[in-house]
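FAQ
Q: What does a multi-component entry look like?
A: The components come first, one per line:
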Amino acid sequence: AEREFMLTFEQIAKAFESTFTALFGGGTTDLYLTDADNPLESGVEVFAQPPGKRQKHLSLLSGGERAMTALALLFAMLEVKPSPFCVLDEIDAALDATNTDRFVAILKEFAKRTQFIVITHNPRTMEAVDLLHGITMQEAGVSQRISVELRDAQEEGRRQQE
Amino acid sequence: AEREFMLTFEQIAKAFESTFTALFGGGTTDLYLTDADNPLESGVEVFAQPPGKRQKHLSLLSGGERAMTALALLFAMLEVKPSPFCVLDEIDAALDATNTDRFVAILKEFAKRTQFIVITHNPRTMEAVDLLHGITMQEAGVSQRISVELRDAQEEGRRQQE
Amino acid sequence: MHLNSVAMRGFKSFADHTELEFGHGLTAIVGPNGAGKSNIADAILWVLGEQSNRAIRTQTSQDVIFAGTDERSPLGMSEVRLLLDNSDGMLPVDFTEVEVYRRLYRTGDSEYGINNSACRLRDVHDLFVDTGVGQAAYSLVGQGEIEAVLSVRSEDRRELMEEVA
Amino acid sequence: MHLNSVAMRGFKSFADHTELEFGHGLTAIVGPNGAGKSNIADAILWVLGEQSNRAIRTQTSQDVIFAGTDERSPLGMSEVRLLLDNSDGMLPVDFTEVEVYRRLYRTGDSEYGINNSACRLRDVHDLFVDTGVGQAAYSLVGQGEIEAVLSVRSEDRRELMEEVA
Ligand SMILES: Nc1ncnc2c1ncn2[C@@H]1O[C@H](COP(=O)(O)OP(=O)(O)OP(=O)(O)O)[C@@H](O)[C@H]1O
Ligand SMILES: Nc1ncnc2c1ncn2[C@@H]1O[C@H](COP(=O)(O)OP(=O)(O)OP(=O)(O)O)[C@@H](O)[C@H]1O
Ligand SMILES: [Mg+2]
Ligand SMILES: [Mg+2]
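Then the predicted structure of the entire assembly, as tokens:
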């Protein structure tokens, strides 16, 4: 069990480096055990630096940078053990345009192996999907599904943001 | 001290009802002490129901509804004891268009008594302010301030969201 | 294995029967605040056998049953059905299409079923236990939860990675 | 009493001297992810005498000093200056304009001042103690913190309201 965990852990660390650099266009990562002699009791620490930056702790990263780092770790785990499907609820909330595009690019890449269902307010994310469901409450307190055209949904989403 | 707290508490409860109904266009609120005999040891529980809905717990509210409820409570406290200035960092992140407009309306109202500095990605919020500062990192890792025109900032913000 | 569709009625704000189909590619669910989007994520977790109230934002298990509005009475039951494509045989049953359902009555009674054959909650768990679905924290990221991936205790992060192994 | 401007250099990502003016009305700070917007909120808290690392997202106090980049060396000091309009006399000093500054050197030495007169941290705290600024949790809401207003323990919420009283 320890052997198996160590193997997986190294795979995740390697995947994390590649997903992080894909999302940030560069940078440095490290995933390490706090107690290497006792992997199954140990903690796992994350070190991540966006390109050109030198801050020492994750806490110094911005909200958007932390969201991108978390996404990199999530996708790293999905790379090592793909889940058949994955539901993501507003994980793009903190991302600006550039970061949303990078997130969408990696999402499309991973969509070859995993079925993604994303809940979003972000028109750029909507741009990337194949199927769109609109949820509304025409009657107060009662939800229903409606078909939405991409253009209308994006317009609404853009109206949402402006 | 207990007398003073009770007085303030009742004022906050009353203000909360009015800020909540302003933000939700209706609904019901209650702010109550868990231990009314020992106010200074007690907890404070929040009950809030958007118009037409009947859910019993705050946890059942949506992300956007919880953000609006939190804002209502924040503004209620500001109403009872105005702060000279108030810094709000991306508190509109979870809000859709309609809710952003309602938040902006109450913000402008309270701006008569309190100086607000808001950090935002939301073009609708930008629409409401009198002064805009752009922060960029033209050199990697080094922040600087630039002047931005409202139109450009909103365009960027809209681009941010699409 | 992938999701074909989810259907629900009486589940949280979905008082009336509602069905969502999922394509093979990326699906997005959109709409205003409070419309019911996250409730759909809750429904998927719930029908897969979720037992933690916190995971679906409830305080008691009956909170998933439509509570009524000013115009409508509360309902007595909540039901969710999940239809899966099993052509790759990932699920340990001999069907290419698998439907899982779960019902909760206001009395507290629960019903579970696989392909219209009543079963226990444990059977639903067993169906998915080797697929990484439902249990794996990284196959569903709830609203506001992405930050948690970084802010959990480092031991919890190791446990999360143990699930990947 | 209101803010006229904040100026900083060597504070987190603001390696070079930067100044922001604040109008009487609503001011917005905008820009891409990681640009430094929240660092400005941190700077305002910090110059008002914030002592908690968590409140300004640092692990050690020296984390506020510009740490350098691939192109630039780290700096040896961080300085923030806050200029306030005191025409309403809310601050207990005889000036209509009050400037508060704070410096931290990489050696660990700190300097504080009010109107270019060196003072102790306590004097900065005392200056603002009756105004509700800085201390009141509801005069600064950090990124991702709005949810906390609802999710804190109910005793903490009562304490927050005691501050209002
Ligand atoms: N048992 C129930 N009966 C009726 N309504 C319910 C029940 N449980 C939750 N709701 C309602 O469902 C709504 C929340 O839906 P949900 O969290 O899915 O919104 P959302 O579309 O994700 O919104 P947001 O964009 O703000 O996250 C709330 O208004 C809540 O009152
Ligand atoms: N001591 C320091 N020296 C240099 N850079 C620092 C230092 N402390 C923090 N930073 C950098 O500041 C950046 C974070 O800035 P900030 O949190 O203000 O971003 P933001 O504009 O609020 O972004 P977002 O929109 O994502 O919230 C990080 O990239 C971090 O590396
Ligand atoms: Mg939601
Ligand atoms: Mg920020």
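Q: Is there any commentary attached?
A: Sometimes. For this entry: Chain A has five helices and six strands.
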